[in-house]
Amino acid sequence: MKVRIRFSKYGSMKFIGHLDVMRYFQKAFRRAGIDIAFTEGLSPHMIMSFAAPLGLGLTSDGEYMDVELRTVRSSKEIMDALNQAGCEGILVTGVYQIPEDKANKAMTLVAAADYSLRFRKGYAPKGDWQSGISHFYASKSIRVLKKTKKSEKEVDIRPMIYEMSVHSGTVFFKLAAGSAANLKPELVMDAYLKSIGMEPQPFAYEIHRRELYADLGQGQKRKLAPLGELGQEIPGEAADGEQ
């Protein structure tokens, strides 16, 4: 049975990299006694994959991983067992069975992500930096230097910004994410500050990822859905008895 797990990452765990998060869940599954499937061969390992691993220093409410289970347990049982076996800083918030016709790995489905960005204490720009965001978002083109693995190139990031707004000092973004196109909120914020004549400061942002989306649209028409909505909760005995 293919299962998608949604979890939050917060507190000091934001400084733990992706490989350590993977090791954390490997230990949590063992401690929780969840019957996860293993690969075959000389060096078997748990069948699990993560959707768009989070950057170091970011917190999140919308992280996802896919696993394959050999025996069926309810969503609540799996969630409770993993949270009891885990530690503070990672919290499982959803468990969904993925139908076979929607069983693509979460990492291949990611098309967009929601972020919230705030300035760290003492790093907010002086003066009015918020009023120009709607004008910036309305721009037809936003050209920036984007770093690649080998060099830098100028790109138009405006098509990758799906939403951008500000409320009480918190900037909200919905941005392209995944293998086809990927845009980081700090790059957008840096571009905005430069557009209003302000110089971005290093380590000035606190960034929180809120959700990851798949695109269910046809052609050029975008239809974003949270990755968890592609599955359904696994009922327990009580739920079965009520039906």
UniProtKB/TrEMBL annotation:
UniProt region (Disordered), positions on chain: 224-243
- The name on file for this protein is DUF2344 domain-containing protein
Taxonomy, top ranks, is: Bacteria, Bacillati, Bacillota, Clostridia, Lachnospirales
Do you know which InterPro entries this protein is assigned to?
DUF2344
Specify the DUF2344 domain's residue ranges: 2-185
